[in-house]
């Protein structure tokens, strides 16, 4: 969201549109590969740690100090779910963009 705001406020006049923004953030999506590949291990590790009362107390303290709403497993899955959303977004943009539109080639 921060990049989208930056693009809109600072870069919009110099770019042809939203497709350019997607192309600039595409390399950052590679960061998700390692995260997704290690997600199962992180989830399993959390499951084991959850059996430890000291860990549970630490988690409770962190929630209190940070104002966190929700639990760690829900936060851990969020990046895993994000990449498919980007893919769906691009597919929908392609589907609803005329092939003669200036951004169409950038989307496909």
SSE arrangement:
Layout: H1 2-11, H2 18-25, H3 31-49, H4 53-66, H5 72-95, H6 104-107
Give an overview in words.
- This protein is mostly helical.
- It is built from 6 helices and no strands.
- The model has no long low-confidence stretch (mean pLDDT 82).
What keywords describe this structure?
single chain; 108 residues; mainly alpha; 6 helices; 0% strand
Evaluate the radius of gyration.
Answer: 19 Å
Proportion of residues in extended strands: under 5%
> What is the average per-residue confidence, as pLDDT, rounded to a whole number?
82
Count of separate DSSP helical elements: 6
Largest sheet: none
Q: Uncertain regions: pLDDT < 50 for 5+ in a row?
A: none
Q: Helical content, roughly?
A: over 70%
- What separation lies between the terminal Cα atoms? 22 Å
Q: What structural class should be given to the helix and strand makeup? A: mainly alpha
Tell me the total number of β-strands: 0
Order of helices and strands: HHHHHH
How would the global form be characterised?
A: elongated
């Amino acid at each position: 969201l921060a990049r989208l705001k930056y693009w809109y406020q600072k870069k919009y006049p110099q770019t042809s549109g939203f497709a350019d923004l997607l192309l600039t953030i595409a390399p950052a999506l590679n960061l998700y590969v390692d995260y997704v590949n290690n997600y199962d291990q992180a989830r399993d590790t959390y499951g084991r740690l959850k059996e430890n009362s000291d860990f549970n107390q630490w988690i409770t303290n962190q929630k209190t100090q940070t104002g966190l709403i929700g639990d760690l497993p829900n936060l851990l899955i969020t990046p895993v779910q994000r990449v498919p959303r980007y893919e769906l977004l691009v597919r929908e943009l392609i589907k609803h963009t005329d092939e003669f539109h200036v951004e169409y080639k950038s989307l496909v």
